[in-house]
Write a structure and sequence with these properties.
This protein is an alpha+beta fold. The protein is built from ten helices and twelve strands.
């Protein structure tokens, strides 16, 4: 499929005039509004403001002209899709995506057309950058979204991963099971001096996880410690006797979430331990530290997302500490063809 075919203009497949074009930075407010309408309808619990969206679109590795599309009715954004190109590939090129359709515009074929567009874009990238390696497209959403499940099934996708959105009420007593760091390790607050060492530790800690792709410096800044939501005062590291980062917890706070819920929430964004240090209580020590620090600073809840089949038994850790499940999310995988 040639590139021009991805953006027909005008685009009228649904019985009304709709325009399909790449997203632009100036569309950040419209995209934030669309995603909030979707959040209300689907109860995803995921709140984003205009600055959050602008930060996402500023990802240096996102080609907005080719990797994004919006469906418009006049000045109103009614649907969108984004395809993220994986830089590093193992056995299969797996393309993460983001997409949504305004609840008022569902069941008109727009979701099916977005899947068609995402597959076409992913095939172009796969051919240009990854040669003959097999490719998959990934769609994710809250498990209660029956429309997404039906769309996935009708377009050849199957569930491949499940995730729990979990929370902890910081307003109740003290954190359960507080423990000191493992012997020989020292807990320190995060600082910029250890940023690169933390990135390398993250890549090593998650190397054996399904589909994990190592984060380079640009990605680490775009999605980790360089974001406006990152809170270094809630984040912490465990160092060994040589000063090496062997475990880490990076925390965030969403201004949009606070505005929407009226509660300050500490998000556990990244928590990892090097394989050689697992089973000694490193992750628990970091988690308890951050929860205590968040409570001390006036946060009312903590939250995180965990793979339900996490190989390091992270789900058991969170449940034992006192986190409870609020929502389940599912990722569907489908072929590019």
């Amino acid at each position: 499929m040639n590139e021009e075919a991805l953006f027909p203009v005008p685009y009228v497949p649904f019985g009304v005039d709709l325009m399909m074009r790449p997203l632009r930075t100036a569309d950040s407010a419209a995209l934030a509004d669309l995603r909030e309408r979707v959040q209300i309808a689907d109860d995803t619990g995921m709140h984003l403001d205009e600055e959050d969206v602008r930060e996402e679109l500023a990802d240096a590795k996102l080609d907005m002209e080719r990797d994004t599309v919006g469906v418009w009715q006049d000045a109103r954004l009614v649907a969108y899709a984004v395809v993220h190109n994986p830089d590093r590939v193992r056995d299969v090129v797996r393309f993460e995506t983001g997409a949504a359709v305004d609840p008022a515009w569902r069941r008109r074929g727009i979701g099916t057309e977005l899947v068609r567009w995402m597959r076409a874009r992913a095939r172009v990238v796969c051919a240009e950058q990854h040669g003959k390696v097999d490719g998959e497209l990934l769609l994710s959403g809250v498990a209660t979204n029956a429309g997404l499940a039906a769309l996935a099934e009708s377009t050849g996708f199957v569930p491949c991963e499940h995730w729990f959105d979990m929370s902890y009420d910081l307003s109740v007593g003290t954190v359960r099971g507080s423990v000191p760091p493992p012997q020989g390790l020292r807990l320190v607050p995060f600082d910029e001096e250890h940023d690169e060492a933390t990135r390398l530790a993250h890549n090593e800690a998650f190397r054996d996880h399904l589909d994990f792709a190592e984060a380079d410096e640009a990605e680490w800044h775009s999605w980790g410690t360089g974001t406006r939501s990152f809170r270094k005062e809630l984040s912490a590291l465990l160092l060994d006797a040589d000063g090496r980062v062997v475990a880490y917890l990076l925390a965030e706070e969403s201004a949009a979430d606070t505005a929407a819920t009226g509660q300050r929430s500490c998000t556990v964004a990244f928590l990892g331990t090097l394989p050689a240090q697992r089973g000694r209580g490193a992750a628990r020590a970091l988690l308890i530290h951050t929860l205590d620090e968040a409570r001390r600073r006036g946060y009312e809840r903590a939250e995180l997302v965990v793979d339900t089949t996490n190989a390091t038994n992270a789900l058991d850790l969170y449940r034992n500490v006192g986190f409870t499940v609020d929502r389940e999310f599912v990722t569907y995988a489908g072929p590019l063809g």
